[in-house]
Amino acid sequence: MMRTSFTRRFTTSLALAFQRWSPASSLALAHAPTHTIVAGWDDTPHSRAAVLWAARTARESGAELMVLRVMPKGHYRARLAAGRTVLTREEDRADGKLARQITRRYPGLRVRFDVIVGDPAKVLVRHTRSALVVLGAHGPARVTGRPLGPVIDRVLSDARGPVVVVPALAA
Does residue 106 have a pLDDT over 80? Predict the structure, then answer.
């Protein structure tokens, strides 16, 4: 059953990408496009580029955009122990600034911001089962030297649906 869902979403994603690059084609989609696009957001220029790419794609496909900030459990516990809120003032301001930028560029787009506490890779992999997930590549990881970084590597290896990685050059 998962394979059918993945195949349907992958085919739809390819068809949407093909239509984007070849607007004159009359390619008919056999399945409805993904209704939600999840964009990973951590207040970096690379994740901002990914969110804006996801917003444009959501507008073009009629999907809803979910901007997802995943907070590792250790950070969350430390903030609560220090008597702080889940998001710092700077993070809250960055979310507001991004929300204004999206609504200015893409009026009428359905957007929601969510904060989830957990392992970033596991949370994003869970979302690949029901949505297109868009992530921004930060470039090589400093510790491991891997080309995309540990979170994106884990998401790509464990994904059950379509994942788009927006290259660091787009930032």
Answer: yes
